[in-house]
């Protein structure tokens, strides 16, 4: 095996006098080799690369179209949601206004009912006060009348003797007789 390796190594040291051999000068052979490889790759790989790029382009375009459709769908859903939101806000405002109107109406009704109740209570109070005043006046009158009657009876019993008593009875009988004659 050592002989085979030695033969390849010795080939690199042969002079390039028109014979076939390996050129080990990297600077001289690299650009030529690279241009040959690139030329072959471009010539044979051009179709494959174009197909890959076309497929990639088609996938990107379809992704863009799908994104546009999704965006349009999202915009439509957003518009529907906005319209629904606006409708709900209008209904909420209407309910709020109706609620405020109902509250105001109930407030006015409550104020009116309370005012009416207060008027009735005031009237009942005034009637009760008048009744109690009248009752107190009547009690005072009755007491005054009782006291006056007792004084009059006391005064009469002291001042009246039987003769004065007899004359008073006759005078009253005369007055009654005169009234009887007038009515006939």
TrEMBL record:
Glycoprotein recorded as keyword: no
Entry coiled-coil feature ranges: 64-98
Source superkingdom: Eukaryota
Subunit structure: F-type ATPases have 2 components, F(1) - the catalytic core - and F(0) - the membrane proton channel. F(1) has five subunits: alpha(3), beta(3), gamma(1), delta(1), epsilon(1). F(0) has four main subunits: a(1), b(1), b'(1) and c(10-14). The alpha and beta chains form an alternating ring which encloses part of the gamma chain. F(1) is attached to F(0) by a central stalk formed by the gamma and epsilon chains, while a peripheral stalk is formed by the delta, b and b' chains.
Annotated HAMAP family: ATP_synth_b_bprime
Miscellaneous notes: In plastids the F-type ATPase is also known as CF(1)CF(0).
Family per record: Belongs to the ATPase B chain family.
Protein name: ATP synthase subunit b, chloroplastic
Organism: Asphodeline damascena
Gene: atpF
């Amino acid at each position: 095996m050592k002989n085979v390796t030695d033969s390849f190594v010795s080939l690199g040291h042969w002079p390039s006098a028109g014979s076939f051999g390996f050129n080990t000068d990297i600077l001289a052979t690299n650009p030529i080799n690279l241009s040959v490889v690139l030329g072959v790759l471009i010539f044979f790989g051009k179709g494959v690369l174009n197909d890959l790029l076309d497929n990639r382009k088609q996938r990107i375009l379809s992704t863009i179209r799908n994104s546009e459709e999704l965006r349009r769908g999202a915009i439509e859903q957003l518009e529907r949601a906005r319209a629904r939101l606006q409708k709900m806000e209008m209904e909420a405002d209407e309910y709020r206004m109706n609620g405020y109107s109902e509250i105001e109406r109930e407030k006015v009704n409550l104020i009116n009912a309370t005012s009416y109740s207060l008027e009735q209570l005031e009237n009942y109070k005034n009637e009760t006060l008048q009744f109690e005043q009248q009752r107190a006046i009547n009690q005072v009158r009755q007491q005054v009348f009782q006291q006056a009657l007792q004084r009059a009876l006391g005064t009469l019993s002291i001042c009246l003797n039987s003769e004065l008593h007899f004359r008073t009875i006759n005078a009253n009988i005369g007055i009654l007789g005169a009234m009887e004659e007038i009515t006939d």
